């Protein structure tokens, strides 16, 4: 805990664990000097459910619903990453069609996650209107994903060696309609928010992160790309069918970008447009064929050894480290979640800023607390 | 900061607010996207996953109580017990309960079932006053021909 | 494995490294595996930092009779992933990397929280995910959930 001396004129403020702008149950212990923050300490663990322990006590198959509970806003991506990790460890490859279906769903999920971030961030900053628009768009994605997966939030749709259900005939048409709609909406968001003078004043120059700091704290995802580093695992270590698709990593300008809240906002908005392009391309390329690999054991059991798999989730670098002894139950399964590292930079960013900026900075990091706590 | 810069900021700032307001006004005349839930309902997608149920089959069901579903279930919510009418008969399931309050709707039970005796129901309004209300007796449900 | 990576030669010749192994198959995800002395870890971390790498994560594995620390380093804009492993002991703290890489702070706290392994030189080594008054380390193989462990969070329903 933070300490202070008796003669010190500072005082404590507890933000959370039930503060609406912490998006979950994160507690920030702040030491304030008037309105300025002197020190900050995040206190974690309010939604720790022990997923890593559960993994050690269940078989790989029975752990399947768990990953999407870690990051509930991008559940399909965690599901996807877990299946890809297992498939690579076992040397199984899913059919092309299944890989495309997973990719499309994961990218749609990324858009949904960024849309929710967009709405909630603007709500944190005091703008109510964009929140409603963002949720309207997100609703469309949930309807599309519901059409394929049958669920709206925690999908558990990807399976070891394929996916659970094939696409419905209505899916491509729904998705194309949505892509056209969101493209028009993104232009509206630009007018409504990106150019809004109040928004710019609240975010520009707030919470800048230098490249050295980003490296030191192992920042990843859009937060890193906002510092001008175009590190995207979909391009650097492409998994699944990402190599077939043509897209550019979204970053801010190498020289102009200072990695402040506004840059992070711009990168996420750019990524939504990018994901729309990816989905559009993938819809053209999707082949016919089976959706489950043949001759795959129902219970995955990787050969003895340790395996590592990295994936670009909506919030950044997600790593899964498996230690197997050849049985159906893992010896150890480590989940390196992006928000955990992204949050660790907060005690560095906050000192010297105003309490009102805490909300702006915290929101711009796009944290999902259950993913940090696991 | 010069006066020119100040005035410029003032004008661009005011223009940004006005154009943002323009977007809002335009949306005022667009169709309403809110659905007034208890009075209006959206159609459920075909893939919708409610809790599981037994598929009716020739006046009964196909479950042989092999236990594959409760061994696979990640949360151990399934209880199934079978019986034989006489020694030479095949085992048939007689009791089939699920504790829906702990079910994560992953669908593994439906997939592993060797007899394809399970499917997802289409229930979605399942508020209960007690946690015991969430225990579903699938046999009773099947015989009542429950809502589906 | 990217043979042109200049760091690999430096790592192979580093005195802290006992054994270096290239990746054996495309399946394991590591380009290079190092077996190291725990004492040499800060020096190695400095080498990684100078060459623009970041610390992806630190974790531990309980093999039943022995514990092992795993450090994974990665780099921006190129496929690069190096894993360093060293034996760890509950009796003897391993050196902390916080001085070198700030990312190690929370990672080491998590390892301490989950396994009870201590790090010498960590400025504020305390529990991070579990409550402060917990008296167990859940990812150790000798941990039994459901048994009483001091506090009463497990009271009531135990599966």
Report the CATH topology name of the largest domain in chain B.
Alpha-Beta Plaits
Oligomer: heterotrimer
* Largest interface: chains, residues each: A-C, 41 and 40 residues
The biggest beta sheet of chain C reads:
5 strands, mixed
Helix-strand pattern of chain C: HEEHEEEEHE
Number of strands of chain B: 5
* Whole-number total of structural domains of chain C: 1
Q: Please identify the top-level CATH class of the largest domain in chain B.
A: Alpha Beta
Question: Strand sequence of the main sheet of chain B, in spatial order?
Answer: 2-3-5
Structure description:
- The complex is a heterotrimer of chains A (374), B (148) and C (159).
- With 374 residues, chain A is an alpha+beta fold.
- The longest helix of chain A has 29 residues, at 96-124.
- The two termini of chain A are 22 Å apart.
- Helix content of chain A is 47%, strand content 13%.
- In chain A, the strands form 3 sheets. Chain A has a 3-stranded antiparallel beta sheet with strand order 1-2-3. In chain A, strands 6-7-8 form a 3-stranded antiparallel beta sheet.
- Chain B has 2 domains: 1-30; 52-144, Alpha-Beta Plaits.
- In chain B, 29% of the residues lie in helices and 16% in strands.
- Chain B is built from 4 helices and 5 strands.
- In chain B, the strands form 2 sheets. In chain B, strands 2-3-5 form a 3-stranded antiparallel beta sheet. A two-stranded antiparallel ribbon of chain B has the order 1-4.
- The N and C termini of chain B lie far apart (70 Å).
- The relative contact order of chain B is 0.17.
- With 159 residues, chain C is of the alpha/beta class.
- Chain C has a single domain (6-120), classed as Beta Polymerase, domain 2 (2-Layer Sandwich).
- Helix content of chain C is 19%, strand content 26%.
- A 5-stranded mixed beta sheet of chain C has the order 1-2-5-4-3.
- In chain C, a hairpin with a 5-residue loop joins strand 4 and strand 5.
- Chain C is globular.
- Chains in contact: A-B, A-C.
What descriptors fit this protein?
heterotrimer; B: 148 residues; alpha+beta; Alpha-Beta Plaits; three-stranded antiparallel β-sheet; two-stranded antiparallel ribbon; 29% helix; C: 159 residues; alpha/beta; Beta Polymerase, domain 2; five-stranded mixed β-sheet; two-stranded parallel sheet; 7 strands; 26% strand; globular; disordered C terminus
